[in-house]
Design goal:
2 domains, elongated, mainly alpha
Length: 117
């Protein structure tokens, strides 16, 4: 793959971030046809794939950080809630998240009974 220009790289980052082709073109002072032509080039497609991998990796890292926060909140609910229903629901969410408890008809009946409590 040959080296791409900073303009190509910026277009790729914008496209994988969900910016419309016409908006990318306007931001870079180009025509939408130019951006479309770039998208057909194998080197540009490689840059797009690379930028998609970067974005995916960043998104996974952010999700992992949120999991830690979510677990802390659920742990707090399990320990401090005065409601048996909320403590049980928090515990079941942990079990579901780990795969110990799956989504079965039996579990749906349990959830309904908890919601009615």
């Amino acid at each position: 793959m040959r080296e791409v220009s900073p303009q190509h790289r910026k277009a790729a980052v914008m496209l994988v971030s969900g910016v419309l082709c016409k908006d990318v073109a306007q931001t870079l002072g180009l025509s939408a046809q130019t951006i479309s032509a770039w998208r057909a080039e194998p080197d540009f497609q490689c840059v797009l794939q690379h930028e998609q991998q970067i974005l995916l990796s960043q998104t996974r890292d952010q999700a992992r950080a949120l999991v830690v926060e979510a677990l802390a909140e659920v742990r707090l609910l399990m320990k401090e809630s005065k409601s048996d229903s909320i403590r049980l629901r928090a515990a079941l969410e942990i079990l579901k998240g780990t795969g110990i408890v799956g989504h079965t008809p039996q579990n749906h009946r349990i959830w309904r009974s908890i919601d009615q409590a």
